[in-house]
Amino acid sequence: MRRIFYIAIGLLLVTVGLLTMFVPIPVPLVALTPLVAGSMILSANSRTARRWIQRARHRSAMLSQAFEHFAKRIPEGWARILHRTRPDAIARHGKMRGDQAKL
Questions:
Q1: Are 79 and 72 in contact (CB under 8 A)?
Q2: Is 4 exposed, middle or buried (0-12, 13-18, 19+ CB in 10 A)?
Q3: Considering all CA atoms of the chain, what is the largest pairwise distance in Å, rounded to the nearest integer?
Q4: Do the beta carbons of residue 23 and residue 5 sit within 8 Å?
Q5: What are the residue boundaries of the structural domains of the chain, listed by start?
Q6: Which helix (H) or strand (E) holds 35?
């Protein structure tokens, strides 16, 4: 029950972050803060969401840089959760696939 609650809160924060990203607000962190907070909650409670976030960060360098920028400014425990969504694993997997295709 608690896990479902956290996933619902995470989805709500991500939705708010995505919706406010396109609203002309003078402060850029207004959209980034709920987006990153929701992503942290989702990645801590859902393996599938963590993989989705990794894929999104792998596709978008700007999003990945924003997450890393945010991770430097939050407490270490929260940053550890955010670092679990780094796209490095996808890049390593792609390299391994490429090496196997050459053999």
A1: yes
A2: exposed
A3: 53
A4: no
A5: 2-102
A6: helix 29-45
List alpha helices for the chain, DSSP H. 2-21, 29-45, 47-59, 61-71, 76-83, 88-102
The tens digit of pLDDT for each residue in 18-54 reads 888 887 776 666 778 888 889 889 999 998 999 898 9
Q: Model confidence over 77-88: pLDDT tens digits?
A: 888 888 888 888
Instruction: Determine the number of helices (DSSP H) and then strands (DSSP E) in the chain.
Output: 6, 0
Chain position carrying tokens 């840089």: 65
User: Which structure tokens are listed for 7?
Assistant: 């996933």
By residue count, the chain amounts to 103
